[in-house]
Amino acid sequence: MRFSAGIVGHRGYSGAELIQILRKHPSIDPVLLEHREDPGSGTRLRRPSPLRRAPSSGDSVRSEGLAAVLLATPPEVSMELAPIMLEAGAKVIDLSGAFRLRTPERYQHWYKEAHTQPALLAEAAYGLPEFCRERIPSARLIANPGCYPTAANLAIRPLVEVGAIDRAAGIVCDAKSGVSGAGRKPSLKTSFCEVTDNFSAYSVLNHRHVPEVLQVSGLDESEFSFTAQLLPLDRGILETIYFRSKTLGSAAELLELYDRRYAAEPFIRLHELGSFPDLHGVARTNFCDIGVAFDRATGRGVVVSAIDNLVKGAAGQAVQNLNLALGLPETEGLL
Amino acid sequence: MRFSAGIVGHRGYSGAELIQILRKHPSIDPVLLEHREDPGSGTRLRRPSPLRRAPSSGDSVRSEGLAAVLLATPPEVSMELAPIMLEAGAKVIDLSGAFRLRTPERYQHWYKEAHTQPALLAEAAYGLPEFCRERIPSARLIANPGCYPTAANLAIRPLVEVGAIDRAAGIVCDAKSGVSGAGRKPSLKTSFCEVTDNFSAYSVLNHRHVPEVLQVSGLDESEFSFTAQLLPLDRGILETIYFRSKTLGSAAELLELYDRRYAAEPFIRLHELGSFPDLHGVARTNFCDIGVAFDRATGRGVVVSAIDNLVKGAAGQAVQNLNLALGLPETEGLL
Amino acid sequence: MRFSAGIVGHRGYSGAELIQILRKHPSIDPVLLEHREDPGSGTRLRRPSPLRRAPSSGDSVRSEGLAAVLLATPPEVSMELAPIMLEAGAKVIDLSGAFRLRTPERYQHWYKEAHTQPALLAEAAYGLPEFCRERIPSARLIANPGCYPTAANLAIRPLVEVGAIDRAAGIVCDAKSGVSGAGRKPSLKTSFCEVTDNFSAYSVLNHRHVPEVLQVSGLDESEFSFTAQLLPLDRGILETIYFRSKTLGSAAELLELYDRRYAAEPFIRLHELGSFPDLHGVARTNFCDIGVAFDRATGRGVVVSAIDNLVKGAAGQAVQNLNLALGLPETEGLL
Amino acid sequence: MRFSAGIVGHRGYSGAELIQILRKHPSIDPVLLEHREDPGSGTRLRRPSPLRRAPSSGDSVRSEGLAAVLLATPPEVSMELAPIMLEAGAKVIDLSGAFRLRTPERYQHWYKEAHTQPALLAEAAYGLPEFCRERIPSARLIANPGCYPTAANLAIRPLVEVGAIDRAAGIVCDAKSGVSGAGRKPSLKTSFCEVTDNFSAYSVLNHRHVPEVLQVSGLDESEFSFTAQLLPLDRGILETIYFRSKTLGSAAELLELYDRRYAAEPFIRLHELGSFPDLHGVARTNFCDIGVAFDRATGRGVVVSAIDNLVKGAAGQAVQNLNLALGLPETEGLL
């Protein structure tokens, strides 16, 4: 069975990645929904690819027969378009932060603007399949997770679930991301000459992705320290997570814990002891790679997790959710 | 007054940086001491720079009138050459790890080989001027600090000195370095195609620079978690340090603590609250830049410190030590 | 129908790209042929991919039922293995320079060693399908073209074929390549710190790829100036070609000339006037993108061609040749 | 004797480089002239450098005693400010393209706007000291050369002067520049994710720097083909120049030609035969490095020239001109 899926925001980096993935997807035809003018890249091929295009509207959902619409748009645009697309009968997968937090108050606190769709916020399913798979197939609206929280929660929650962490000592997540995470809109902060040969921290202790980590991991804000940092590269997120444990007996036991939890997960890969994930290993894949170290004598543990921020951290996970929402095999088009 | 100083290992990255600095130094003439053949870069200018050259020997110390010799060599070469140069009457500043740790046992544990000069190890002064300035002028042999420990200790020790840290909760140091820190010898790990667009962790919880941090900061190994990571750039180290405090009242108080401690230090610069160091800010300088964040409600603190690993982390600090050893103004040739 | 194809040299960059492509190929199963020990990357996943492996031998051709063997090896290894694999009944596609030049003398002149398989050299078909497609299906041994010559000949030969170039004025090809073209063996020239932030020319007027360009384009050495240059990036080749014409009437006519020549070619894409290829446009694809400019008043023309050196310049073109050799659709696994 | 010099546009890349150079200059004190608001970099040090600041006005020239004003501004701002600063008694060195071309018509053709100061255009001296040194000391207004023309003319004019080039065959200049040449204003074309791992041609056969090359080299437009290309790095220009000669007898003779012409030039360095310039060699210096190849049998020649576009291509050359204009040693502050 074939489906059509609309993409709004296809000129941004996440949107372009959605197109890349869906063009090769055996069961889904992408349709580019034009929302606003954008200068594009300026290069023009003589025979450009013949993808379907339509305006970004409810009429397009009906006329193009869109089973789903993927919103690779800023939160304010997502809040505007999600009800229109839902009303027209499409499922909606939103890649912005608009529908990820549990309450309008929390949204307003972290995103500095009022939430205009509180009913949809209450209805939305959080789309981290490894921990929320059961709600996704029946949801009308799926909030695709943030890039940093995806790598963080996949590393942290297995530890919290089994009580392996000494929460009183706190958990540290030192996160590093490639520049595409900041989007395609030109700014001084993402200009080539400012980023190349550079590395810098931002949103230290107050990044808006923190509440997403807390919601899923079960940690309390007082227990969790998070710093975001900008790498001089295009794509990839690596997070180094530090914790203390009074219960773990060895690094092997720590690795075993992940192995059990993720035995059936197609997109989680574990590194053998002594080996750690890097960004080359996950680039252009939907994998989250995890590696661990543990010092038995002192109870200090480190977990390293890596994803491609545009794939498992955005477009790939959105297609994973799309597959679940449409009843397709979860890995279709993603391996 | 003018001095001559020899440089062994001048084709490596630290050695080349020493030449760069000393050629502009108003009181010191560099002399290149040839120790072993090295292919060089292959480019040949018609009129190369006319630096003095001599063999790497005690005779050269005497014939060239070298007041000091800087060893930008691997530890085993430093252990071989240091006694020869000292014997010939030169002061020695060693940029390797050979003379940094306090005991031969500790050296053997971390560097996986026996220390061949235990008497010199006992004699060596540790050359971190901000904390060990008094011993340096009279020392014959100065162990120039490691790059990671320099950035770590300058950030951590002021907190330990005043008891601002809740040591039971542990301190985390997440460290990132440019590739020049690995030296100039070709290897797969530092090949362009392996490093570009990549980021990876190594020596997780067991880096040989850890004991240097402990020696200077006063922390215990059980309190300190350290991860080294490789950035896809040439030069620069940034370390993000996480701690908890029961005594600090605010971020301003935390910043004030550094301001007092470093008021008279020429090479430490502080960022205003809300601003953080980056690698561009310290590239090709001998500065260590420090910025802080603190969440009063929960007692979580973050300190970010940045240096150029080849300057404050190697050659620049070596010249700072050289200035102290020769009775020159500490900042000469470095601002 | 399914085929098995062996890959020798699968730890090099071209070999790894072959694996990447063949794993997704619908009709071909890759088999890794182990020729020599190689340290690999050092990272170890818990559940590595279960690709078939076998020794690099004629027995493996028979026991694994290999229809073809792809040699991603240095020329001297290719000369050693090609006769063994052919003897065992496999077709051979060689990615090295061993079988590209027409005579042993020419090989010796440019590769500085005697050719050990002159009979095979005489037999080999040159695998640039856009110009040599007819001989490839029936050939036992196919010499996969060099990366620079592929981009050069696809741009130049259409001009030579129709006599559009004023050959007396000479043709210039200024070529730039990413670092993966130099292979995976560590060397100072391809070390990260030497390449990043750098750009340099090499083999000026005497690159060993020049005779391949001449053989295919029909130009004479005296007419053709070529410089190779190293870009600080992983993959991609862009060549800027300058010529003079007394016959062309406009840029549109120049573009039309390519459009006619390549109308049926699946892997050549043309840019509209005013737009030019870049490396992002061809990265990880088997396309060669071409754009043109022409100044009618003075007869000066420029053609820009871009490929991914590891795909159309190596592994992708090898699979294109493999498809032709096995009677599969030429584009299978490559779009 | 000490002078004060004003800098307008000090937040741009060329302006920042001017500050860097002048802060270390033994005879010149820089004064930052504030022309327009600019967001700056956002980082704030606790004790920022105490450079003098003043508004960008004629009054500031008088009150600050500015012997000269350096305009690191767009051409339209330079045309606005140059007469004001000249009127107030300062010499003006303009880093924009406003005063480089010889006639208002030529300016209008290439810069697509009317020239508002034709009298000043007629008066301006072109500031390429190696070829125009005599006029600079007495000029009120100096047009600092463009970055591409600096590297091109230093390589080409010595050949034209002695008639070494077969001009009928044409000269090709294939030019590559780092991203800082495009200025600091954010744009999609200079965004990190668009530039990294990429390489692209622009302004093929119609770059506005072409007429500057023709004016100085003496070539005719019909003889000269020029392509500009964007390198994925911060700073540096390398140009590869192709020509044919009927008079040169060898590569050694070609190199000798440059050696004679530039024997007394402090900022031109030649490479031995077989060695070629690269960008590392000239980064953060005011040097132009030149290397050559020549094939005697066919008369084909190649010259490679490299500069730092922000130093010899902008700020360094401006200070070289400033030294000449103020009667200081030409190399002061630049070696």
Task: Characterise the protein shown here.
Chain A has helices at residues 13-23, 58-63, 75-87, 104-111, 118-123, 129-132, 147-161, 192-195, 210-217, 251-261, 279-282, 311-326; strands spanning 3-8, 28-34, 52-55, 66-71, 91-94, 125-126, 141-143, 171-177, 200-202, 224-230, 237-244, 268-270, 288-295, 300-307. The first copy, chain A, is an alpha/beta fold. Chain A has a seven-stranded parallel β-sheet, with helices on both faces. A seven-stranded mixed β-sheet of chain A has the order 9-10-8-11-14-13-12. Chains in contact: A-B, A-C, A-D, B-C, B-D, C-D. The A-D interface holds A 13, 39, 41-42, 179-180, 184, 186-197, 232-234 and D 13, 39, 41-42, 179-180, 184, 186-197, 232-234.
Oligomer: homotetramer
Q: Note the run of SSEs of chain A as H and E.
A: EHEEHEHEHHEHEHEHEHEEHEHEEH
> What's the pLDDT, averaged over the residues of chain A?
96
Count the helices of chain A. How many? 12
CATH class of the largest domain in chain A: Alpha Beta
**What fraction of residues of chain A sit in β-strands?**
15-25%
Number of strands of chain A: 14
